């Protein structure tokens, strides 16, 4: 039975990746900072919390990683490093801890992988790093691919770029099977509430339930390439099944504004967003990334990957889940 270890297993991607790997008969292990029940709500919502084995660990604590990865308890086969302080805006307030988790943490995971591979063979462990479109940051290209120059605009993006180069360096120096997926924004009903898709779709449901009156947002003219998280975790796995390690952009290729997202989400709740949304300048980032759109031709050609969920369906599905969570019966016209 193939074995996988996922750092960040209780996050959005960790939950969907676990579900995908379990469906493919993997023995799934995850690293969590603590085992409190409330911390694994996503695994519970997917009904897989009893099917994965959780280990206490922290990517900033090399001792805990070494203990888990060194194979004292099992032999990892694929390692997915998804752990991160993943909220871009918060990284401006906590740059040092963001760097410790997102850059040093990735390095700790790579070092543990290198040590195991030095003992057991260089492809004993296959390593996946969660890189990001935020590494492109400020770009004037219409779309970004694996050859686009990086210009990160946040402590989050800078830390992720350091980790990205560490993966390349470990691949070139030690011959590790290590891949980075440069993933553009991907969303789902399991998204954290601080991210704009969930913030908007949850607000629509709360407004419909009479629990919220309006919604404050930051830069609603920001343009992003949003896909469904369930599709993106499959791309992670596909990368580790290749004969040789490589890096891939994963994206839909379709870009939209936050404003368009508001329009779709509120309309699905039978509302006009213009009556509810206000722009609050304090919610803008100190250094904004205005416009990102991915070119995933390489992933489509080599991995055979493609997205399955259109933007409008992604947003309306998220609204539907939030309406259910709020116990709101949908209006027939918008259902
Ligand atoms: P989430 O924020 O939902 O999950 C992040 C996970 O990392 C959480 O489980 C969190 O656990 C864990 N974590 C944070 N700090 C540590 C630490 N020090 N040690 C161990 N675990 C830690 O993110 P997503 O699932 O959305 O994203 C997964 C990865 O992909 C992240 O690295 C993110 O930066 C990257 N990414 C995400 C994209 C997206 O659109 N979703 C796009 C591109 C890249 P806890 O509950 O303890 O905080
Ligand atoms: P992002 O996602 O920063 O792209 O990072 P987020 O949903 O936070 O922002 C997307 C865009 O929406 C604009 N925006 C707002 N964002 C939030 N969160 N709240 C608001 O009120 C708001 N108003 C406007 C933002 O300015 C931005 O332009 C996500 C994370 O998952 C990262 O970990 C990942 O690497 C990238 O996606 C790709």
Tell me about this structure.
The chain is an alpha/beta fold. It has two domains: 3-186 and 226-250, Rossmann fold (3-Layer(aba) Sandwich); 192-224 and 255-291 and 309-325, UDP-galactose 4-epimerase, domain 1. It has helices at 12-23, 41-45, 62-69, 88-93, 95-120, 155-174, 196-208, 229-240, 258-268, 297-303, 311-325; strands at residues 3-7, 27-32, 53-56, 78-81, 126-132, 177-183, 186-187, 215-217, 223-224, 227-228, 248-250, 256-257, 277-279. The protein has a seven-stranded parallel sheet with strand order 3-2-1-4-5-6-11, with helices on both faces. A two-stranded parallel sheet has the order 7-10. β5, α6 and β6 form a beta-alpha-beta unit. The radius of gyration is 20 Å and the shape is globular.
Descriptive tags:
alpha/beta, Rossmann fold, UDP-galactose 4-epimerase, domain 1, 2 domains, binds guanosine-5'-diphosphate-rhamnose
Task: Please specify the SSE layout and strand pairing.
Elements lengths: L2 E5 L4 H12 L3 E6 L8 H5 L7 E4 L5 H8 L8 E4 L6 H6 L1 H26 L5 E7 L22 H20 L2 E7 L2 E2 L8 H13 L6 E3 L5 E2 L2 E2 H12 L7 E3 L5 E2 H11 L8 E3 L17 H7 L7 H15 L10
Parallel strand pairs: 1-2, 1-4, 2-3, 4-5, 5-6, 6-11, 7-10, 8-13
Antiparallel strand pairs: 9-12
Helix pairs in contact: 1-8, 3-5, 5-6, 7-9, 7-11, 9-11
This protein binds NADPH dihydro-nicotinamide-adenine-dinucleotide phosphate and guanosine-5'-diphosphate-rhamnose.
């Amino acid at each position: 039975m193939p074995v996988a270890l996922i750092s960040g297993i209780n996050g959005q991607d960790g939950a969907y990746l676990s579900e995908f790997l379990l469906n493919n008969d993997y023995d799934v292990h995850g690293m969590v900072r603590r085992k409190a029940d409330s911390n694994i709500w996503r695994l519970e919502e997917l009904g897989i919390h009893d099917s994965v084995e959780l280990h206490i660990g922290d990517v900033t604590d090399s001792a805990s990683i070494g203990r888990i990865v060194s194979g004292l308890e099992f032999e990892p086969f694929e390692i997915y490093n998804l752990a991160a302080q993943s909220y871009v805006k918060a990284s401006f307030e906590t740059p040092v801890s963001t760097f410790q988790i997102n850059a040093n943490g990735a390095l700790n995971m790579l070092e543990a992988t290198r040590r195991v591979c030095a003992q057991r063979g260089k492809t004993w462990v296959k390593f996946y790093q969660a890189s990001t479109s935020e590494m492109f940051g400020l770009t004037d290209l219409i779309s970004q691919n694996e050859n686009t120059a990086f210009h990160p605009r946040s402590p989050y993006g800078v830390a992720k770029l350091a980790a990205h180069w560490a993966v390349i360096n470990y691949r070139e120096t030690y011959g590790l099977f290590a891949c980075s997926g440069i993933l553009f924004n991907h969303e789902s009903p399991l998204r954290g509430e601080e991210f704009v898709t969930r913030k908007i779709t949850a607000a629509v449901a709360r407004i419909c339930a009479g629990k919220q009156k309006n919604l404050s947002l930051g830069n609603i003219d920001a343009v992003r390439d949003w896909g469904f998280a369930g599709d993106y975790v499959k791309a992670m796995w596909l990368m580790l099944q290749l004969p040789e390690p490589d890096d891939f952009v994963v994206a839909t290729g379709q870009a939209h504004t936050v404003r368009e997202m508001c329009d779709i989400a509120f309309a699905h709740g039978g509302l006009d967003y213009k009556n509810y949304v206000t722009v609050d300048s304090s919610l803008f980032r100190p250094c904004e990334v205005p416009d990102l759109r991915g070119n995933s031709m390489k992933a489509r050609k080599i991995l055979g990957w493609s997205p399955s969920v259109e933007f409008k369906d992604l947003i309306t599905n998220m609204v539907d889940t939030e309406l259910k969570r709020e116990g709101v019966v949908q209006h027939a016209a918008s259902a």
